[in-house]
Design a protein that fits this description.
The complex is a heterodimer of chains A (339) and B (144). Chain A has 339 residues and is of the alpha/beta class. Helix content of chain A is 35%, strand content 22%. Chain A is built from 11 helices and 17 strands. In chain A, α1 links the parallel β3 and β4. Chain A is globular, with a radius of gyration of 18 Å. Chain B has one domain. In chain B, 81% of the residues lie in helices and 0% in strands. The chains are: A alpha/beta (339), B mainly alpha (144). The interface between A and B is medium-sized, with 28 and 38 residues.
């Protein structure tokens, strides 16, 4: 049974398996360093639709159908999220699939939340299979949060580039590695950051607090994990995370990577601080991390999707950008927790 | 950690924009746009237009050209390269009106394009007009 351990961590002693993953990305992501690993790379970011928002929903629908095919099951529930107002990207994407759906929002940390909630459903016996799915689209995010696409301006060096795509995982009661063995739910942090072009800075403290709580609650050392993988901190956020953790005596410099840094090639793709968006961590998990866990190259990872919480209104009204993160432990063996 | 000391950390970790490179590019492209403008003016004067009409011809031509380039998806590329060099001239103003028009057309001609076309240029128009009124009044009462 799932058990609350320490202040914020839930551990699973029963197998909660991830039996398949699916990733779909846009053209720029397909040209990036991980291009060959994704299940599907779009040839046109409009995905044959009339609007960017509809394109995102089409990507969601496609990615879920890839997931169902690869896992060989239709899940009992879908838990999904995106960046559009009122989860429209997800809702329009799943409407024809006719599977009960939980729409969630935790900005770019949504995939972590979806995995955590799916794991609880599997562990409790509420479901046999749950699809965790998130999406983002560069153009729909730009339109909602920033400027019109064709406005001729320059992006600051601290800005990140929203990933176009979707990532999904089938969380299942089937006993097959890798397993979700624990998760630590993030607390909302406010460190006074109000620059919407520096999301990495807004999210780094949330990631630091979440990782540090996870290690304390599980009585684990940072070196226990082959990799600690944050979602979309980018180059600026990564440096801040390492510094913040160092102040607490935790050194993850050797085993930390960030999905936002992995997905684009900074030099040739002009993406400044890196990639961001819900799909950034989800697509990298589905395409790269899951495969490396399956082939045994990685045995245990701490996957930490990070989110910057704000709305166009909160930014206009001068409010700070809040941060959140979920740390999900994914390991190749079931842990008999005794803490 | 309080937000002031975190702010210090953020400042140190955040790379600055390459100021010198940006300035050189802005100077070159901004200058080039002005040169094109001057060529248009001279062209109009040679064809017998008076100075006022030549200036109008130049503005209108630059505005239309920037608007076309925006629609073709080229002005954003110029803007990314040149920064202020392509924002400050009249072509930048044209781009700031055309780009929301392109973006919000999908939300309809009235509530989409119609209401959002000045989303970027609106403040310039509003405060530009207000400033003109104030300067005009100062000129009227004090300048004569």
């Amino acid at each position: 049974m799932a058990k609350l351990t320490g202040a914020e961590t839930v551990v699973f002693s029963k197998p909660v398996s991830i039996t398949a993953t699916a990733s779909t990305v846009g053209t720029k992501e397909g040209d990036g360093p991980l291009g060959k690993l994704f299940d599907r790379v779009l040839t046109d970011n409009m995905a044959g639709e009339e609007t960017w928002e509809a394109a995102e929903s089409a990507i969601v629908k496609d990615d879920l159908s890839i997931l169902f095919e690869k896992s060989g099951v239709r899940p009992d529930f879908i838990i999904g999220g995106d960046l559009q107002n009122q989860c429209c990207g997800t809702n329009y994407g799943v409407k024809d699939i006719k599977i009960p759906t939980f729409g969630i929002f935790d900005a770019c940390a949504s995939f972590g939340e979806a995995l955590a909630l799916a794991a609880i459903m599997i562990d409790s016996g509420a479901a046999e299979n749950v699809a965790a799915e998130v999406s983002s689209h560069f153009c729909s995010a730009e339109r909602q949060f920033r400027f019109p696409l064709e406005l001729g301006n320059q992006r600051p060096q601290t800005s990140t580039y929203t990933v176009t795509g979707a990532g999904a995982a089938m969380v299942s009661s089937a006993d097959r590695p890798p397993y979700i063995t624990a998760f630590t739910a993030g607390k909302i942090t406010d460190y006074g950051v109000n620059d919407a072009n520096n999301m990495g800075a807004a999210m780094a403290p949330a990631a630091a607090e979440c990782i540090s709580s996870h290690l304390r609650d599980t009585v684990r050392d940072a070196a226990y994990y082959d990799l600690i993988v944050t979602g979309d901190l980018g180059y600026v956020g990564k440096e801040l995370l390492l510094q913040l953790l160092k102040k607490e005596g935790i050194d993850i410099a050797d085993n930390h990577i960030d999905c936002g840094i992995e997905i684009f090639d900074k030099a040739s793709q002009d993406t400044h601080s890196g990639g961001s968006g819900c799909a950034c961590s989800a697509a990298v998990f589905a395409a790269m991390l899951y495969k490396r866990l399956r082939n045994g190259e990685l045995k245990r990872i701490l996957f930490v999707p990070t989110g910057a919480l704000m709305s166009p209104t909160s930014i206009q009204e001068g409010k700070n950008i809040l941060g959140t993160a979920y740390a999900v432990a994914v390991e190749n063996e079931v842990i008999k927790w005794n803490i | 950690m309080n937000s002031e000391s975190y702010d210090e950390m953020v400042k140190k970790a955040s790379p600055d924009s390459p100021l010198l490179k940006d300035c050189i590019r802005a100077f070159a492209v901004g200058g080039l746009i002005c040169v094109i403008g001057q060529m248009l003016t001279n062209f109009a004067l040679n064809y017998g237009l008076d100075e006022k009409s030549a200036a109008t011809f130049t503005s209108v031509t630059l505005i239309v050209a920037a608007s076309l380039l925006t629609g073709m998806g080229l002005y954003s590329k110029i803007g990314k390269f040149a920064g202020a060099g392509s924002v400050v001239p009249i072509t930048g103003f044209s781009n700031s009106v055309t780009s929301p028009a392109v973006e919000f057309k999908k939300e309809g001609y009235i509530l989409g394009l119609g209401s959002k076309i000045f989303i970027i240029a609106g403040p310039v128009i509003l405060y530009g007009v207000l400033t003109s009124v104030i300067v005009g009044m100062v000129y009227y009462f004090a300048g004569r």
